[in-house]
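Homework help board

Subject: predicted structure for assignment chain

Our instructor gave us this sequence and asked us to write out the predicted structure in token form, then describe one feature. I got the tokens but I'm not sure how to describe them. Can anyone check?
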Amino acid sequence: MMSKVFSVTNKKGGTAKTTSALNLAAALHAAGKRVLMIDNDHQGNLTAANGLTPAEQKYTLANLLLAAIDCPEDIDLHLHRAVLHIKDGLDLVPANRRLTDAAARLQVMQLSQYSSCGNTERYCEQVMDSLLTSLKSKYDYIVIDCGLQHELLTINALAASDYCIIPVQAHFLASEGIPNVLEMVRSVQARFNPKLQIAGILLTMYQSRPQLCQSVRESVSEIYGQDFHVFERPIEYSIKVAECPAAGCSIFEHAPRNAAAESYRSLAEEVLRLG
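My token output:
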């Protein structure tokens, strides 16, 4: 069975995007699935959240993207170096600031596409899709953590994905980033990946008592619930979740009985039901 690819993205910061990518991957792995995490952010937050120092990583997603552009026939050699084994059945393609160089190369490709009036065999927006072709048979799920900058990198992730998850902080005005993500998804669906679906909107940093959080939850469901799935259980706010990236591990290792751990298990169960 070919793997299912999920991009976790929001163009607004502070939505627990990386934390959600990390813990979704960990929950899927705990369910017995082979999972690959891809850090698609030049800041390397997902890399750091797995206990690694981004700047020390010699082979990263940047190497893979550049290899896919320059020498796609040798991509398997680069995969062997860039895919790190976190634990049995759970792997990571790390990232660091060199990803900015890969993003710049994609922009050069994009300019070349425009100057050739569309007469090109390879599009800069589909480099990651070609890269993942060699990986999909090895995993059940691939989870991509998308950054806020370098829009071409996010477009590449969406063009290679089956589903998109949109995390939204359960605070006032936090849902303002949703329309921007939806616009990008529709563009990718129309131009590169018609099979891309929005798996759902995930409320994060949720507190059940404050009326504001409940109001945001109701507002998101009212505005988007008819057209898009809103995941059943919000991710509860907890200092333990915030500690996970610094601890270099998931909530299931750091505080397995925490309410947020149950929330991420619930998210994984919904993802598993998608097929």
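Reply (TA_rk): Your tokens look well-formed. For the description, you could write something like this. Residues 88 and 216 are 39 Å apart (CA to CA). That's the kind of observation they're looking for.
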